[in-house]
Amino acid sequence: MPSPYRALFAEPGTKSFSAAGFLGRMPLSMMGIGVVTMISQLTGRYGLAGALSATIALSAAAVGPQISRLVDRHGQRRVLRPATLVTLLAAAGLLLAAHLEWPDWTLFVCAAGIGTVPSLGAMIRARWAALYRGTPKLHTAYSFESVVDEVCFIFGPIISIGLSTAWFPEAGPLLAACFLAVGVFWLTAQRATEPEPHPRERHGGGSALRSAGLQVLVATFVATGTIFGSVDVVTVAFADERGHKAAASVVLALYAAGSCVAGAVFGLLRFSGAPERRWLLGVGAMAVSMIPLLLVGNLPLLAAALFVAGLSIAPTMITTMSLIEEHVPRAKLTEGMTWVSTGLAVGVALGSSVAGWVIDAAGARAGYGVPAVSGAVAVAVGFLGYRRLRRPAAGRGGTVEHHSEREERHLA
Q: Which residue windows are transmembrane per the record (predicted)?
């Protein structure tokens, strides 16, 4: 590992909470695609599979920010453990209902309960921010966490789809639940690196979402999440139509691998320009990268196209976290990060649901029109909200001014 990354782990406890965060985030890439694979295996209904995946994502979108808001006030340990227990009970109910062929409404009730899953990525990034706020190490830490996210997306689908197709349909979601339990309870046992909670009286001004800049980020990532959700579902169906359903996990892993490589390199770089410009370029690159998916006709070409498409993901996400630091008060940082995850979750819900219906109606290849349109929407929202991103939250103006001054000196 390059020296800037090694330097992150000089502080005591960083290796342990990072490892716990890795395990706890595996369900992020395993649960949704695992449910899609499980339901399609048991019923053959991609519409139902996509709708259930969407229900999980929408529930997480509604509940996740509230959980993170409680975490900011009361601390990670006191909030994450009970929230995770609810998620685990709901996951057990979903697997049982699917196995015993209970009515569809029971599947949706349990899927909604899974949405209480905490945003482990936000919890880990909050720990890094508490350690390295105001130093160059924070950029490296966010880059490292983006790489960890993508490693989860490389191995998660392979494990989840592979187990559900080779062992039994419920195997993928079952293992995802086990990873969540171990990760959360290991993380919350580590008190020394837990960020200091902020009591209620320091949370004036309502939700972090009142920030105009955060609103732009969240709205854009609804469209971005639609890309991710639809690509997952369509890729499984595309591989299934060609008689190689299990290969979908490898194809999706290459999508994540592209992002992983880009994130690792991005973390080694230092930038002098305004972060909102890099962010908008990243969103545009993600949108353009969806166009080739409409033209591919076989799995090898699809894998290559998705690897290239993945190169823009991690840099955009890393820059997003830097922008959140500028647009959200410190006492609401975990909530602010979770709102972006919420935007992604809403998008994943829309993407997986719409893609499922398009596949049922017109086939898998037509389904790639969903991420292409979503990318165009993301660019449009980003351009319309760009001015808001240039105005940081109260008390954060110096950061953006510093970026602007450095940019002017660089251009001069």
A: 20-40, 46-67, 79-99, 105-126, 174-193, 214-238, 250-271, 278-295, 301-324, 336-359, 365-386
CB-based contacts of 337, cutoff 8 Å, min separation 6: 68, 119, 121, 122, 125, 126, 321, 324
Whether residue 11 contacts residue 131, with contact meaning beta carbons closer than 8 Å, is answered with yes
Buried b (16+ CB within 10 A) or exposed e, 275-312: bbbbbbbbbbbbbebbebbeebeebeebbebbbebbbb
CA distance 267 to 8: 12
What are the helix (H) ranges across 75-136?
A: 76-99, 104-114, 120-132
- Is 5 exposed, middle or buried, given 0-12, 13-18 or 19+ CB atoms closer than 10 A? middle
Contacts for 192 with CB less than 8 Å, ≥ 6 apart: 12, 13
| Unique residue bearing structure tokens 């716990």 | 20
> Which tens digits make up the pLDDT trace of 383-409?
888 887 776 555 444 333 333 333 332
d(CA 315, CA 307): 14
Q: Are 54 and 196 in contact (CB under 8 A)?
A: no
Residue-wise pLDDT tens digits, 258-301: 888 888 888 777 776 677 888 889 999 999 999 999 888 888 89
Q: How far is CA 148 from CA 82, 152, 409, in A?
A: 25, 6, 34
288 to each of 252, 312, 406, how far by Cα in Å? 18, 10, 30
Burial-class residue 357 by CB neighbours within 10 Å (0-12, 13-18, 19+): middle
> Where do the domains of the chain lie?
3-190+210-411
Closest CA to 31 of 6, 8, 60: 60
The sign of the torsion formed by the CA atoms of 175, 303, 375, 21 equals: positive
Cβ pair 49, 40 in contact under 8 A: yes
Strands (E), 143-186: none
The mean pLDDT of 85-93, rounded to a whole number, is 93
pLDDT digits (tens, 9 = 90+) for 361-383: 888 888 899 999 999 999 999 88
Grade residue 76 by pLDDT with cuts at 50, 70 and 90. confident
Residue type, 375: G
At the topology level of CATH, where does 3-190+210-411 sit? Growth Hormone; Chain: A; (1.20.1250)
In this predicted structure, what is the pLDDT of residue 16? 92
